[in-house]
């Protein structure tokens, strides 16, 4: 096993059958049992073709180490996080490659309370436990938590007339959405809702432009709200009634305002609108590095109400500090109460001009970060994730990729002139470092 190639920043992931094997799956279960001294663990899986066999191997690794395992079968990542939080077990393992193409698979590791384990809080320590252990007392049982998970979300709202186009991207969010429709009274139009391990309709990543095209077209034509999930349903991207993608940070700022959530976390690349709304509520705002592991852990450790990421991860205190696509959708419908999301976020678009994240392949990432520290003489400098430079009515983020020789540049300004000026200055800044 070449562990270094599959251990990533936030999970374990690679090509199924060659990099992600049953041998590796057994190792993951057994190593987690050793590292965390597990007594109990929950294991679930996505719908990829290799996931059932990989789940069996994970369970065997756990049981051999003396762990009492509950397998919950096909589920979303939000559901398994909810189960770990709800039942109080020691850990959870989700067999999934999230939004990667169909030839991939992997493992998401959850510690107690359903908190994600990443490189920065111990994931790579599992590599220290390559010698398997065998203990007496291990066992495995099956339990389906889908109904409990869905009904818990429905405590927010049991019926709504708001028309919503929902695209689960052929992923494991589909059965949960369908069960929600069976138990409640909602006006949903489903698209691409049959589980499809090959993702033949479109990419399972809602940040890909082609993945949101069906929703954009339908919503613009029918003046309705849209929601696109990624393959394991831990991200939800909203499409407004005019067929425009709603950035996760704009959505987060709006839901903070509507629900009066006074304690929130967002990342260094998220719009100033989030902090603005928290400030208006005299609330508590926390900035984190980019990455769902950081945001979720901040939510839990600091007792916050919500965690926000531009990429569509929305973390809710009321769902054990984890993502919950069902609860997020129902909270949105409750907050809208018949209004249009397009109208609600219009002021954000008028107040701030935000860039996409621009990636540049460079020779030396640290050299770029060192140079960024003095890019603007009058800027406040924050270094919790790369270099964040802030000034009156603007900010610039210069971050290094954790896995590739890439620098990621993002910026925002309150005027078009300032935005254009920042764009020009950043292009001139990064050019000498770019690898030809």
Structure notes:
It is a single chain. The model has no long low-confidence stretch (mean pLDDT 97). α3 (51-64) links the parallel β2 (40-45) and β3. This protein is an alpha/beta fold and 436 residues long. The chain is globular and about 65 Å long. Helix content is 35%, strand content 24%. The protein folds into three domains: 3-144, 3-Layer(aba) Sandwich (Alpha-D-Glucose-1,6-Bisphosphate, Chain A, domain 3); 148-350, Alpha-D-Glucose-1,6-Bisphosphate, Chain A, domain 3; 352-433, Alpha-D-phosphohexomutase, C-terminal domain (TATA-Binding Protein, 2-Layer Sandwich), CATH 3.30.310.50. α5 (146-153) crosses α6 (173-183). A six-stranded mixed beta sheet has the order 1-5-4-2-3-6, with helices on both faces. Strands 17, 18, 19, 20, 21 and 22 form a six-stranded antiparallel beta sheet that branches.
Characteristics:
Alpha-D-Glucose-1,6-Bisphosphate, Chain A, domain 3; single chain; 436 residues; alpha/beta; 6-stranded mixed beta sheet
Report a brief summary of the structure.
The protein is of the alpha/beta class and 436 residues long. The chain is 35% helix and 24% strand.
């Amino acid at each position: 096993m070449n562990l270094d190639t599959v251990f990533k920043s936030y999970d374990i992931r690679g090509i199924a059958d060659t990099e992600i094997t049953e041998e590796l799956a057994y190792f993951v279960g057994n190593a987690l049992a050793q590292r965390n001294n597990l007594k109990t663990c929950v294991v679930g899986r996505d719908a990829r073709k290799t996931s059932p066999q990989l789940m069996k191997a994970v369970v065997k690794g756990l049981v051999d180490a003396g762990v009492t395992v509950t397998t919950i079968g096909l589920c979303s990542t939000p559901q398994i996080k909810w189960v770990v939080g709800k039942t109080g077990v020691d850990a959870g393992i989700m067999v999934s490659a999230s939004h990667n193409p169909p030839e991939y698979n992997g493992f998401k590791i959850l510690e107690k309370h359903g908190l994600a384990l990443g490189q920065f809080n111990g994931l790579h320590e599992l590599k220290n436990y390559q010698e398997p252990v065998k203990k007496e007392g291990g066992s495995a049982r099956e339990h389906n938590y889908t109904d409990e998970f869905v009904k818990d979300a429905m405590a927010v709202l049991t019926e709504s007339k708001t028309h919503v186009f929902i695209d689960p991207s052929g992923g494991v969010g589909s059965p949960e959405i369908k069960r929600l429709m069976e138990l409640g009274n909602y006006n949903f139009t489903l698209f691409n809702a049959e589980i499809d391990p090959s993702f033949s309709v479109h990419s399972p990543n809602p940040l890909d432009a082609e993945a949101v095209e069906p929703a954009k077209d339908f919503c613009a034509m029918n003046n309705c709200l849209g929601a696109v999930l990624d393959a394991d349903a831990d991200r939800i991207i909203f499409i407004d009634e005019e067929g425009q993608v709603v950035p996760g940070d704009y959505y987060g700022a709006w839901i903070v305002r509507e629900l009066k959530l006074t304690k929130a976390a967002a990342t260094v690349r998220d719009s100033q609108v989030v902090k603005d709304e928290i400030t208006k509520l005299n609330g508590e705002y926390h900035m984190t590095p980019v990455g769902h592991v950081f945001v979720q852990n901040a939510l839990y450790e600091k007792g916050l109400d919500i965690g926000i990421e531009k990429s569509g991860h929305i973390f809710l205190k009321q769902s054990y500090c984890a993502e919950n696509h069902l609860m997020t959708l129902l909270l949105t419908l409750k907050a809208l109460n018949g209004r249009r999301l397009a109208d609600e976020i219009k002021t954000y678009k008028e107040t701030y001009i935000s860039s996409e994240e621009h990636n540049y392949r460079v020779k030396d990432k640290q050299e770029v970060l060192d140079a960024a520290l003095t890019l603007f003489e009058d800027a406040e400098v924050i270094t919790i994730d790369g270099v964040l430079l802030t000034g009156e009515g603007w900010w610039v983020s210069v971050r290094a990729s954790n896995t590739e020789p890439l620098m990621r540049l993002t910026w925002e300004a309150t005027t078009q002139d300032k935005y254009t000026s920042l764009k020009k200055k950043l292009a001139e800044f990064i050019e000498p470092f770019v690898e030809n």
